[in-house]
Amino acid sequence: MFRNQYDQDVTTWSPQGRMHQVEYAMEAVKQGSAAVGLKSDTHVVLATLNRASSELSSHQRKTFKVDDHLGIAMSGIISDGRSLCRYMRNECLNHRYVFEAPLPTARLVRQVADRAQVCTQRSWKRPYGVGLLVAGFDKAGGKLFYCCPSGSYYDYKAMAIGARSQAAKTYLERKFEEFASADLDTLIRHGLQALSASVTDGELTKDNVSVALVGKGTPLTLLEDADLEPHLAALADEVGGDGAGSGGAMEEGGGADGASAPPAAPDGASGAAEAAPAPEDEPPAPMET
Amino acid sequence: MFRNQYDQDVTTWSPQGRMHQVEYAMEAVKQGSAAVGLKSDTHVVLATLNRASSELSSHQRKTFKVDDHLGIAMSGIISDGRSLCRYMRNECLNHRYVFEAPLPTARLVRQVADRAQVCTQRSWKRPYGVGLLVAGFDKAGGKLFYCCPSGSYYDYKAMAIGARSQAAKTYLERKFEEFASADLDTLIRHGLQALSASVTDGELTKDNVSVALVGKGTPLTLLEDADLEPHLAALADEVGGDGAGSGGAMEEGGGADGASAPPAAPDGASGAAEAAPAPEDEPPAPMET
Amino acid sequence: MFRNQYDQDVTTWSPQGRMHQVEYAMEAVKQGSAAVGLKSDTHVVLATLNRASSELSSHQRKTFKVDDHLGIAMSGIISDGRSLCRYMRNECLNHRYVFEAPLPTARLVRQVADRAQVCTQRSWKRPYGVGLLVAGFDKAGGKLFYCCPSGSYYDYKAMAIGARSQAAKTYLERKFEEFASADLDTLIRHGLQALSASVTDGELTKDNVSVALVGKGTPLTLLEDADLEPHLAALADEVGGDGAGSGGAMEEGGGADGASAPPAAPDGASGAAEAAPAPEDEPPAPMET
Amino acid sequence: MFRNQYDQDVTTWSPQGRMHQVEYAMEAVKQGSAAVGLKSDTHVVLATLNRASSELSSHQRKTFKVDDHLGIAMSGIISDGRSLCRYMRNECLNHRYVFEAPLPTARLVRQVADRAQVCTQRSWKRPYGVGLLVAGFDKAGGKLFYCCPSGSYYDYKAMAIGARSQAAKTYLERKFEEFASADLDTLIRHGLQALSASVTDGELTKDNVSVALVGKGTPLTLLEDADLEPHLAALADEVGGDGAGSGGAMEEGGGADGASAPPAAPDGASGAAEAAPAPEDEPPAPMET
Amino acid sequence: MFRNQYDQDVTTWSPQGRMHQVEYAMEAVKQGSAAVGLKSDTHVVLATLNRASSELSSHQRKTFKVDDHLGIAMSGIISDGRSLCRYMRNECLNHRYVFEAPLPTARLVRQVADRAQVCTQRSWKRPYGVGLLVAGFDKAGGKLFYCCPSGSYYDYKAMAIGARSQAAKTYLERKFEEFASADLDTLIRHGLQALSASVTDGELTKDNVSVALVGKGTPLTLLEDADLEPHLAALADEVGGDGAGSGGAMEEGGGADGASAPPAAPDGASGAAEAAPAPEDEPPAPMET
Amino acid sequence: MFRNQYDQDVTTWSPQGRMHQVEYAMEAVKQGSAAVGLKSDTHVVLATLNRASSELSSHQRKTFKVDDHLGIAMSGIISDGRSLCRYMRNECLNHRYVFEAPLPTARLVRQVADRAQVCTQRSWKRPYGVGLLVAGFDKAGGKLFYCCPSGSYYDYKAMAIGARSQAAKTYLERKFEEFASADLDTLIRHGLQALSASVTDGELTKDNVSVALVGKGTPLTLLEDADLEPHLAALADEVGGDGAGSGGAMEEGGGADGASAPPAAPDGASGAAEAAPAPEDEPPAPMET
Amino acid sequence: MFRNQYDQDVTTWSPQGRMHQVEYAMEAVKQGSAAVGLKSDTHVVLATLNRASSELSSHQRKTFKVDDHLGIAMSGIISDGRSLCRYMRNECLNHRYVFEAPLPTARLVRQVADRAQVCTQRSWKRPYGVGLLVAGFDKAGGKLFYCCPSGSYYDYKAMAIGARSQAAKTYLERKFEEFASADLDTLIRHGLQALSASVTDGELTKDNVSVALVGKGTPLTLLEDADLEPHLAALADEVGGDGAGSGGAMEEGGGADGASAPPAAPDGASGAAEAAPAPEDEPPAPMET
């Protein structure tokens, strides 16, 4: 059997000019439960599906406030994400202390991405295994960025990451032209609708969903539990009509998670690939959410 | 035979985006004897099953006081856990010295988890092989957290970790709705009942059990030896009726220890897997308890 | 099967005196979308094709202003390039602060190349996976350099890098004698024409193209969106007549991307090479653009 | 043949959550000659069997005084033990200097164990290959601890470690209920009796035995040579009657050295296991005693 | 197939007392285009053949001025050479600043060679992949040295390095007795003639040749472009008669590049050696010139 | 063939709890020529057999004065031993400077052994390959220690180390009861007699023997060349009668060099073991004496 | 085929207690051209055979002045030797500055040897690949030492190292009894005669020989070029009669280079050994002389 010999060290290039360890870390993002972000002209909204390992545990939070003007949602290895979140909070605090002004979203995102890039170029580290959706509102207006383990970041109108996020993205692509002019409640409803497309069993409840929003005159606010109920109720009303369509989208997109096709498994034993359960069906690794 | 080539270095990602070394460290937690935590509206209780290597030795302590408002129970590699416990005590002392107030439970838990996360991202270290149940009572009320070797932490209403903990969790899941309003004695009895579900031979005695409790107006207290006897007696009264049920629970849950299914052995030789004793029956590695 | 044993560590020489890891990093440059640079006697122009991972995302920027007199376009791993860009900006700022004058282009290029060289001679690092086209205008006139992951740099009259850049280079080689005396608009049009030769499907639009220009009396200017429209319109007019020729050039050059033939795959299994998709057809690795 | 790939680096977890290198270091303890510790209400006694490589050499000391209130006996790699002993002496000296009081036994033991734990979590170190029996007498009374290479420590009423220590432990388990109320001479005699159970050829003499004792009002005292003679004589008187029993115990326990069953040899070739001499019969590695 | 196990780490000796990695780095020198040095009693001349990757690029410079009395020509990995050049310039500057005198050639050469030696004795570095011809004129007269990746240096009357340099050396060996008394123009012509012997296709032009000269009363001067034309014209006149001879020399020496026979390929598969193109015919690795 | 996978890194334990690299370093001691030490009540004597690589070289010294009261003899890698000797001299000097008294022998020996132990617990070092016989005379009387590469040390009445030392040890074991009361000349004669037992061809001469002695009122004295002649003459007289016996001893002990049986060759191919020359017959590695 | 697994890291012991990497480095010494040293009662003389890579290059110097009273000749990797030479010069300078006296030869030699020893005990270094003959004259008289890569040094009456040095040693062994009383010219002639025995083709000329001498009242002097002619002429006169004998000696000793037999090739394939050219016939590695 052919063994890929270039995919074990983060500082090793493959002959095709790829960094397999970085791509594998990006797979970790796809194993976490879905997170969705979208923006209108006035607001940016993040919505995450929170997993609970059992009914005894609370759902693990995946949405965090960084500063008054900035929040993040993450998918993948949450403990890696916490480490980046701590860094972001420090940077915002320092900037406020020195300049008496919020740190611009784009600048903070670049700093976080640079921090992630360093982890792809030192042999004793590993790339972070977490993807961040960053929502901010500053003088430049509302911004939604996606920071990826490779140290890249992208500016999005709307984006979904994590397990089964393709269905959510299909929804967003179909609807995003309505977002710019949407009011906040509609925007939240769109976010929840997209998120619900990534759920195969069960449904969105006030327990397994978090929403964060930030916008013109609205500091970053986390909606949880009771705050979510009106939005979920509004969603339920609509799903009767719209759900079939989003279910169809989910099926179309079911085989291709995330932004790009998964890199071919380097071990490439086709027989093994058949026998192995598809990533979608596998239980996630214990530490991912 | 297929060899998993991604499971030997802590800084290596597998093509599926998993960190096998971290998952293996989580297996170490499942090898330790069981620890149980649960909380009511006013109190948090930890109960551990302490192993003794022979009748000559005292039972190894697995429950520790960290500060007046906070205690921990651990399962897995106790020497790793001691190292974390020392860190927690220092943090609490420093916080009291600087702020003249107890360190909030959630904040300490996050710091410990961050410390564990670092060990998953440096090539010259290894993940800690211990799971911590942290019980604290502060302004935010009673809290029960589980800190895992991956650097993740979870907020629980009730939780059991360690060997055969599935039986204990089954008990907790069946009863947890009664906990919120339970008085302290009842809460302790529930904890012991859950713990006893994880014992296959022998029974709970004042020697092999420790209980820690903390709550409104109650600083962290360790119950050992004689202090435990009334509680054990109460338990014995009840077990006549209830024990059969918990035994049944144990059988149901017998094959699936811990929070998730054990990761497939990467060496995957099915013949070997049959021949090998199931982890449940194996004697634990000498250093685990 | 013969295994190349000299291509995994950046500090290992092959018996033929080659550094395979450095060559592999140069392959990463060829995976990014195309970037083109060209100069007249008075101006230097950079043009890049920007990829967007979906219609939800903005196109990823690949053209950056470094200082008033200097800009860069990059192809390959953008997060690596950002790290070099940050370094260049700092050097320019420091030079202005100390000498109250812009840092000469050639000198900055040498410093960046030296920085890249160090990454090819330390075992714990990896070569940068990005190629930079540097356009500057200083006392020495307009300059166009290409900085490559090996730490080499080259002075060019016109150059194209990235995926399918051979077609663009063929265009440039056919036309470059006209560049010296071209006015700025013509020069930009030549750049866009070259860039369009590297596009197989779709066409250049104001969204997927960025242009940077710098010249005598013209500080570095980025043309994006609306600013590009007149130039794209002029291009469209002309393509009717000229496009067929550039298409033909593209076909000729289709098999040989970049400045030199790709290094022979060290694993050299000819059967595998046939089966594998040609690099041109493969989707780029997720982090490259 | 199946090769265990998880047992060569101290920082590598096995898929079962074990640290094989730590377990192997614990095997080194079992290769050293036996050491026995036991305590009454008023005294703690250590007794060791000292090997001499030939009649030309003195017997190698394995019992050391650390402070007036504390002594240790060791089994395994003595040079590793000496390094720990030096550390313990320094800690005791510093504590006396700062607090003008002896360092409590339990606290010193925890510090030593923490030091051993660090060696199990750094890739450039190895676990210590020595087990320590620590006997101390302080305000908390007499204490007997066993510190193991894993960084764990255990509180014992009586304990035996080293080669053929199972026979000694069997003796201790049969008799330990008599120890609490025993006077010092009886306690020493019990210790020697246990030790003699681990001797297969030859017998205890004033040359190959050391005894250390500490207790209420008795600073740590080493009994060697002539001081031992009365105790050995008393032992000889008794052995006539009791020896047969202890010999039987030895046979029962002969196959299972130390506190737990030896970890299965990871190479697991059963044929090889038969051919190989049992560890009991093998000459010890030259540096162990 | 036999695998050479001693040729991958720079700090590993082969059983024959060779350092293969250093020898491989010396192969890199042979891949660069040719460089020639020669001296008369009054002058030292360097001539290099500069490659251009396409007609769009300028030819890459391989001749550098270090100080008024000293210049270098290089062959191999130019980015490595630039790093050494920068070091040499600093040393010369410092020496002038401290001693108000030029740094003697031999001393600078020894320092550079010592720097290269260090790279052959540290496991985290690699030997430089560049050969330097150093021409200097100081109180000791004109000097021509060759610094090699191994950290050795040699004093030469005339020398050629790089691809097909054997033909150039053959020319130099045939003529060198005429050099001592030659005037500068003749010396340059001899250098160009030698250089032309290493060219198989095309010819020397003012674009692909650089000449550096230094001598009594002549500070180091670079001849490029127009400055070279008279010398190239003189060469052209002569080649009619002499070229055939040098062509013959080239054929004789065609199989043995550089100063010594190439080390036997450590993989030693004779069949593979036949199939593989001869190093002469292979395109050079992209980063070498 | 089975490959021992635990014997290449000094920080790796074997499953049997052995450190093979340390044992291999102890083999180096057995390859050096013999060294003998013995003591009476008043004196300690060291005698070494010095090898000369040819008649052109002087014999390599293996006996060194450390201080007035202390000397050493070594066997194995002499350059390693020199490094330890330098350390010992420094320690003695510092002690004399600070305390105005000689450093007690036992304390110095422990320090040297601790230094050796560190080399067995760091992955970037290797154990010393030298054994030291340390002879000292201080307030505690005459002392003879053996320091071994494992970091262990032993107190001896008499000891021989190095190649064929078993024969010398056999002699010492037969005679050592006479040593205590022997006068100095007799003690030296016993030392030489023991040493001569380890010589298979040739005999002891004033050139190939060094003797060091220290004792009550006698500072450390080296006997070489002429000083040795009376002692060698006395030896010659006696050998007529006694030599046969020692020869016989040599034959008995011929197969088992050094203090313990050689560790089983980890490659364990019995056929290879037969074919391989016995260590006794092999020429020593060039650097050992 | 059996692979030696102990000969790749300098810090790995073989099961036989050998350090193969150190022995391989000693092979490098044997690859360099010969160097000879010898001494009379009043003088010490070094003579080296200098190789030139072609007639264009000067012969590489292998004899160096370190201080007025001390010089060295080297064989092996000259760039390693230069690094040691620089160290020796610094030590001599510092000693003269501090003590206003020359550094004693034996002391300097020990320091150099200690420096070489360190390189055999650190995993990130490699042993030096050079042998040094050190000639000094100080208060202790004339001294000739050989410093070897292992960190050992030896005191010699006369010695030859490098390729075919066995023939030279044979000459020295036959004649050395005449050296003590020889006058300087005779001593030099003996040195040259020994050196000529190591030459198989060609002969000694003023170009390929260097001689260094130091003695009572004679500071270290290098004889080169013209200074050598009378000595070479004297040699030529004598060779007519004596040459045959030295030729015979050369044949006897032809198979055994250097001070000891070459270590058995660890790969030990006897067939390969036959096929491989004898080390004598192989061209030396490019960097050795």
Automatic annotation (TrEMBL), chains A, B, C, D, E, F, G:
Q: Might you name a Gene Ontology BP term for this protein? A: ubiquitin-dependent protein catabolic process
InterPro entries named in the record: Ntn_hydrolases_N, Proteasome_alpha, Proteasome_alpha-type, Proteasome_alpha1, Proteasome_asu_N, Proteasome_sua/b
Composition bias type Low complexity, residue spans: 258-278
Q: Which Gene3D superfamilies match?
A: Glutamine Phosphoribosylpyrophosphate, subunit 1, domain 1
The answer to keyword Disulfide bond applying to this record is no
Q: Which residues form the Proteasome alpha-type subunits domain?
A: 6-28
Q: Where in the cell is it found?
A: Cytoplasm; Nucleus
The protein's UniProt keywords, in alphabetical order, are: Cytoplasm, Nucleus, Proteasome
Q: Which SMART domains match?
A: Proteasome_A_N
* Feature: compositional bias, Gly residues: 241-257
**Pfam families given in the database record:** Proteasome, Proteasome_A_N
User: What segment(s) does the record annotate as region Disordered?
Assistant: 238-289
Q: Does the keyword Cytoplasm apply?
A: yes
Summary of the function given for this chain in its UniProt record: The proteasome is a multicatalytic proteinase complex which is characterized by its ability to cleave peptides with Arg, Phe, Tyr, Leu, and Glu adjacent to the leaving group at neutral or slightly basic pH.
| Annotated family | Belongs to the peptidase T1A family.
What is said about its interaction partners and assembly? The 20S proteasome core is composed of 28 subunits that are arranged in four stacked rings, resulting in a barrel-shaped structure. The two end rings are each formed by seven alpha subunits, and the two central rings are each formed by seven beta subunits.
- Entry protein name: Proteasome subunit alpha type
Species of origin: Elliptochloris bilobata
Its lineage reads: Eukaryota, Viridiplantae, Chlorophyta, core chlorophytes, Trebouxiophyceae
